[in-house]
Amino acid sequence: MRIVIDGMGGDHAPEEIVKGAVAAARDIGDEIFIVGDPAAIRKQLDVCKYEGNQIQIVPAHEVITMRDSPVKAIRQKKDSSLVVGLNMLKNGEGDMFVSAGNTGALIVGSRLILGRIKGIDRPALASIYPDMTGGDPCLLVDAGASSESKARNLLEYGLMGSIYIEKVWGRDNPRVGLVNLGAEESKGTSITKEAYQMLMNSQLNFIGNVEGRDVPKGVCDVIVCDGFTGNVILKLTEGVSLSIFKLIKEALKSNAKAMLGGALVKSKLSGLKDEFDYEEYGGAPVLGVSGPVIKMHGSSTERAVRSAILRGLPYAEENVVDIIKEEMQDVAEFIEEE
Amino acid sequence: MRIVIDGMGGDHAPEEIVKGAVAAARDIGDEIFIVGDPAAIRKQLDVCKYEGNQIQIVPAHEVITMRDSPVKAIRQKKDSSLVVGLNMLKNGEGDMFVSAGNTGALIVGSRLILGRIKGIDRPALASIYPDMTGGDPCLLVDAGASSESKARNLLEYGLMGSIYIEKVWGRDNPRVGLVNLGAEESKGTSITKEAYQMLMNSQLNFIGNVEGRDVPKGVCDVIVCDGFTGNVILKLTEGVSLSIFKLIKEALKSNAKAMLGGALVKSKLSGLKDEFDYEEYGGAPVLGVSGPVIKMHGSSTERAVRSAILRGLPYAEENVVDIIKEEMQDVAEFIEEE
Lengths: 338, 338
Fold this sequence. Notes:
The structure is a homodimer.
Chain A: E1 2-6, H1 15-25, E2 31-36, H2 38-47, E3 55-59, H3 70-76, H4 81-90, E4 96-99, H5 103-114, E5 124-129, E6 138-141, H6 151-168, E7 175-179, H7 190-200, E8 205-210, E9 222-224, H8 227-251, H9 256-275, H10 278-281, E10 284-287, E11 293-295, H11 302-317, H12 320-337
Parallel strand pairs in A: 1-2, 1-4, 2-3, 4-11, 6-9, 7-8, 7-9
Antiparallel strand pairs in A: 5-6, 5-10, 10-11
């Protein structure tokens, strides 16, 4: 496999990106291309004392920043690391693209440069979501690629998420749940009601509606929702978790007895915090475009970059894009019939 | 004030409802009417050793259950505690109605029996939401009265929530925030973008968009969102909080050192849990209908019932319904102009 990495995207680029690539290179034999400012990347490779030829530098002299408007940036910054990297995928010079850059630009770029898979109306961002009861994490689709979704988009999310989990995570017959405001099929908006029926009539292992309180409890493998709801779920989960851990930290400093107890439980509580650590799980795949693209968190450090590469690799190796293409032929007919 | 209570609504009716009413009666001089099965209510009043005449029983011989379809129940169960109670408000025999019964039926009943305030397109359920940084709680509108909202509904929620907080909680110039997937005004769905402009052009103290991660941080007094999103936010917050507290409890039992530490921090952690205790804050007002209606949690116990009555009382005393009516005359013109 030829892994292409956006060397200039993210808060800690190129330093942490290069470090993560070097760390990943120790575990795999695949070629790694880091796209971006050659001097800056070379410098960081030297800092890492990297001397092999498994990692190569691909020059790109522009950078898409977080403040850039996605569509404009893709059209105008042709020599940016993000556009150059996606073009390598398109031209068959790479098999997977990984970036911690501007999320909107990465999604728009994937759609414009790689193109949508035939039959997919809206590509989606699939984010890893923890199971707070201690089980394996699940996949939340859409995490914010679109802000509005039609019922057929929700069906597509369920389908793509299922295939990804089966092929990349090796989990059989993934359970698909639809985020809704009640468990009954009669509940929800006109869109969730229609999506419920489409999911129920599909070949997916659809377990029905999932209420907000069950989202963190690992009740399904693929959590399907529109991108607005997905964005709120991810950020709210982060906000509530961090707020509680902060309150606990403060409470455990409030008097001598609590401080002593706090010292004794410290390692246990840090362990818990790690369970919600997105860095370990790898990046978020962009699903529905004609090539394996992985979005890393903007603040990704070495460890997150390494995880994103290693855990994302089966997205390319298992030909997940081709499998989605095949499945969509059947589903497209099914959607037409509906 | 004449407070009317649904004696038969909720998981622990009539026992806990009656206990809560008796507890509230000790703190206020207002008349309390408990509507429902006279024998069952009388029996519970005897259990509470209540002998005064501040609390009176109003007979109603039907009960709307959680499984009843709201519209059908309101139309058919004319002698239910919920319908009889709402009719007392309508006929001027009561000044406030409090119920822990079927939420959908209470909202539909309020709309059909009391009627909407002129200019209000959609009544809303306003739920109390904790500030997890330790500050005063805020109000989330809509918590699920409607599953879909237009931009003008979101403006109405902001307006009604502001008035409620100002008059009932005595908080000046409440800050209004709009739940959205990004902070910038260009972000979101077509509806949130339109609502952003309407809120910005209104007389409200609009602070802009609020992302999921900031919702639990007390950044505003009124959190405005559609009822679908509101329902997900409330239930997800509950799910994440409870899951974390459960994980902590388990972690603190895992070995001898952690158990000792756990014993020392136990009271601190229980204290934290209380901060998220909805029972203490009182019930959720139904806003936008022509009478003060308060929804209590279905599993309300004595303490929750007492809080809902005491904390909800200013909703009636301060003539909040009349103030919303007046304000809506101006806003209705403003909405027409838009």
